[in-house]
Amino acid sequence: ALITGGSAGIGGAVARLLALGGAKVMLAARRESELLAVRERIVGELEDMGYPGAERRVGILPGVDVGQLHTLKPAVEATIAAFGRIDYLINNAGVAGAEDMVVDMDLAAWTATLDANLVSNYVLMHAVMPMMKKQGSGYVLNVSSYFGGEKYMAVAYPNRADYAVSKAGQRAMVETMARFLGPEVQINAIAPGPVEGERLKGTGNRPGLFERRGKLILANKRLNAVHAAVVKAMRRGLSVESLLAQLAANDVAAMAMDEAAPSELRALAMAAHKERSDDCSWGSYLFTAAIAERLIGRLRSGGCFLALPEWQSRSGPGWIARLPPEDQPYLPPRVVQDEAAKVKNGVLSLLHLGKMPTETEVALATVYFLADRAVSGETFMPSGGLSLERSITERELFGSAKRERLDMMRGRTVWLIGEHLVEYLAEAARQLVNECQVGRVVVLCRTADGASAIRVALRDVPPDVLHIAEVGDDIEGGIDAALSHHGYPTTIVSTPFVPLPDRLFASADGPEDDNLSPEDFRQLVQDNLTHQFRVARKASLIDGTQLVLVSPDVAAGTDKNGAGFALANFIKTTMHAFTATLAVENERLVHDVPVNQINLTRRARSEEPRNAAEHMEEVKRFGRAVLLAGAPLPDAEDSRYRSRIYRGMAITV
Ligand code: COA
Asked: What pTM does this model have?
């Protein structure tokens, strides 16, 4: 058995039980000292039990880091060199991720989480597969999480979208790839919830998960409040520079007294003033350097500085006159503890078990699960799963948007982001123009060829309505340019720029190079999940926008062996974790951008259109779904469900 992250936590406990059960185990992790210590313990136990050659039964591979993808294949080769075969690949190692809201998360952090938690699984699986196929048996286990959702169900994990997506991806991978590996090779996932152990308690100087989350909630509430005050003041015409100039004093008491200050900033300061206490500084200072940096990042990302090149390029909080003292905590320690306790109790109340299991308990359940030779493509919940009050499932398109919602789009601007899905984009544009009388359709394509194909398809749309721009790989720059030229859009529809690959795992007797390479898998993740992340983290900061993310299509009749369909389902399911999470986060931001997903991905291959007429029906349904998810929502006063309908949904057309 090759186990990543085998030196501690669930991985360490699984490794120990497998070794006690007679397996030879290879523990792969970053640090040699920890690996040596755990190896010594396991070898000691094996010797006590009387295993001959105990030393040779436990190997270690230091320097293996799932975040460094090039370290992975050598780990497989070293395991084969040591033991002659690999029967179990346990994809256990992972990272906690950025712990930030999507709008504040940087691209490098997002990519690092997806590489470490998701792409690494594929890299390793790809490396072991030729041997497992040859052996005629093998087992891949992905260690996912409750917060990766369940089959047909997305779970929102606010402030951890990168993690949620990576964990949903590990599960979706299992669900969609099993039939390509089976029946000889099993692939399953386990989805533990919070587990009593080091990882939750925090290692070294790092606080535990619940405390980190408590701090993050309080810091984000302040950040969101400052951000909201600035945006609300801007909405009534105050300039962003003048607001930042006033915030620069970073003085709660002075601003609360200042009758000349904009009412939004004054109200903010008065609320902060109430939080004064001797053991912290957040009652005296509106923000820390980190909060100020995020504020500027949000304003920049939302296009507030486009005409202010100085702010556009400014980095760091140099504009602030004073910062909180470093010898005192900014957040009140007692309130952080209360908040952490709320998070802990909150999650405990969601667990079927009602308590957190230990690492050993989870490992025991996992090893029993591994012993079942019949199951593949499933996700096992070793501590029972979550009892969620509300779950978000995928739905079939049903009904149409109400006339009054569509009327709200009259004369407004809509953006369509895409390239190859020409027919779908053109139909959406046509319905927006003809049925909603939108004033402008802005299409952001990747290449000149994409732009001309769209132009041809939409030659019946008046040229003053249709605007097509080529953004290349710089989608952020393209969004900024569109904001400069066309102002705020009412709706942004984002589709992937490139089609899916059409290969996955070749059949045992098929040619090796028919496989989807690890590089191709990583690219697939970037072209779909990361692409939508890049669009969404900016779109979520645009006032008055509705965001629609589209899952990939598999053109009917093109998918010979089902690989495209499997990959489309993998993306669709994984993306829903993102959509569901972002929907919750966005309700906490002043812009309150609703986000929904349209699944171009069919639920079964038998739903594929059988002829041109059925294809056109599907294209039309897509246009209708764009109106349904993309039209502004009814006013909060008109609908108490406003915040619940059409938020975080995945609608299959
Ligand atoms: N900005 C502003 N407020 C925020 C916020 C943010 N970024 N994130 C959370 N909050 C606020 C919420 O609005 C809520 O405020 P309120 O009490 O004033 O209503 C409060 O924080 C608590 O949020 P809550 O609604 O309980 O949680 P959530 O929706 O953000 O997340 C869980 C729910 C279950 C994901 C969360 O409680 C959690 O992380 N639990 C622990 C997860 C775990 O055990 N993980 C280990 C296995 S991987």
From this structure: 0.97
